[in-house]
């Protein structure tokens, strides 16, 4: 049985301990491509546990012993999945582990922005009780939300929104309308910019791919109503951050909650950090205590499946199995 490599910061401790109790694990410091390639080859590493580490074609081409990448998260945009398939490396993720955590953060963001909670909080800290005469919050009941990407998280957000009395439309061309509508959600298979003025809330749940990069661009933002808010808990690259910064400053939209940024961590002079209408968090929507435990334990289950010669339950690149058969 081969060894597994992990990096700092590592996964939740109880999950890591479980992996260590079953398999041989080598723990490295922070990820850096060339030293990692050396370590994989030196120790004949079979699997690596990743979260945000960039797994490039160069790494995959240079490490013939590597057979799987166990991602501690849902999104795999940090991994060149096509190259992994080409080199026979399984990519495993943990899709059912943190959707409630992310959806809760979306609901919180929508309420905080609509209820003007941050300006109230800041004013109270500065002895400005009269803020209540200047700033007024908005109710979310009867607002209209557009959910972009109606997967695990989008569907959970939709259920929570409906409890708040928010009317939900989902954009996801890959799903059957009968499936989406069965949940009482309107279905869009195509975005018509002329129809975006109808929405008060845009919640982004698309994976970052070449098709979704800068999905929210200037044209999209120009099509929204001035009172609209955007919540992005998917990946920074799905939103053109510079355009959203400008749209907020120019009053084209009312607010944005961004858990994810185009560059993480952001540069110290990134304008979005100083934008008072941007509610920011450091990519933690899915990182509740409970979700971290679930993620790490699912990573263990994926690794166990691999070593038991089962098809891992969360294998992203199923084609890799055909490739293996071709090799045999
Ligand atoms: N901020 C965080 O902490 C955090 C945590 C978990 C997940 N995420 C991100 O959230 C994203 C969504 O997660 P999920 O679990 O709901 O994923 P999912 O795979 O269940 O759902 C994604 C949905 O997007 C749809 N989709 C894909 N490409 C599309 C396109 N071009 N246009 C429209 N729809 C498209 C798919 O059909 C699918 O229904 C992940 O990809 C990940 O990047 C972030």
From TrEMBL:
InterPro entries: D-iso_2-hydroxyacid_DH_PdxB, D-isomer_2_OHA_DH_cat_dom, D-isomer_DH_CS, D-isomer_DH_NAD-bd, NAD(P)-bd_dom_sf. SUPFAM superfamilies: Formate/glycerate dehydrogenase catalytic domain-like, NAD(P)-binding Rossmann-fold domains. Residues 108-285 form the D-isomer specific 2-hydroxyacid dehydrogenase NAD-binding domain. It holds the Pfam family 2-Hacid_dh. GO terms for molecular function: NAD binding; oxidoreductase activity, acting on the CH-OH group of donors, NAD or NADP as acceptor. The keyword Cytoplasm does not apply. Residues 11-317 form the D-isomer specific 2-hydroxyacid dehydrogenase catalytic domain. Keywords: NAD, Oxidoreductase. The keyword Nucleotide-binding does not apply. Belongs to the D-isomer specific 2-hydroxyacid dehydrogenase family. This is Uncharacterized protein. The lineage of its organism: Bacteria, Bacillati, Bacillota, Bacilli, Bacillales.
């Amino acid at each position: 049985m081969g060894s597994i490599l992990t990096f700092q910061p590592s996964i939740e401790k109880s999950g890591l301990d479980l992996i260590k109790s079953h398999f041989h694990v080598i723990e490295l410091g922070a990820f850096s491509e060339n030293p990692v390639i050396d370590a994989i080859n030196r120790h004949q590493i079979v699997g690596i546990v990743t979260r945000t580490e960039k797994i490039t074609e160069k790494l995959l081409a240079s490490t013939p012993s590597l057979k799987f990448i166990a991602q501690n998260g849902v999104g795999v945009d940090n991994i060149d999945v096509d190259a992994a398939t080409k080199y026979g490396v399984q990519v495993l993720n943990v899709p059912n582990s943190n959707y409630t955590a992310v959806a809760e953060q979306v609901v919180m963001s929508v309420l905080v922005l609509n209820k003007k909670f941050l300006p109230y909080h800041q004013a109270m800290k500065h002895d400005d009780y009269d803020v209540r005469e200047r700033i007024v919050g908005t109710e979310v009941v009867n607002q209209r939300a557009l959910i972009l990407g109606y997967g695990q998280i989008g569907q959970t957000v939709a259920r929570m929104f409906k409890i708040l009395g928010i009317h939900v439309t989902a954009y996801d061309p890959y799903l059957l309308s009968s499936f989406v509508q069965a949940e009482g959600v309107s279905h869009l298979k195509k975005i018509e910019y002329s129809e975006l003025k109808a929405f008060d809330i845009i919640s982004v749940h698309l994976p970052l791919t070449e098709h979704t990069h800068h999905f929210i661009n200037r044209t999209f933002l120009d099509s929204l109503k001035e009172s609209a808010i955007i919540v992005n808990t998917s990946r920074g690259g799905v939103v053109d951050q510079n355009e959203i910064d400008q749209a907020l400053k120019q009053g084209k939209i009312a607010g944005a909650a961004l858990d994810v940024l185009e560059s993480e961590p952001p540069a110290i002079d990134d304008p979005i950090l100083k934008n008072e209408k941007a509610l920011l968090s450091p990519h933690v929507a899915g990182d509740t205590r409970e979700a971290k435990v679930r993620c790490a334990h699912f990573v263990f289950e994926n690794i166990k499946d691999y070593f038991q010669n089962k098809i891992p339950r969360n294998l992203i690149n199923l084609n890799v199995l055909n490739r293996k058969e071709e090799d045999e």
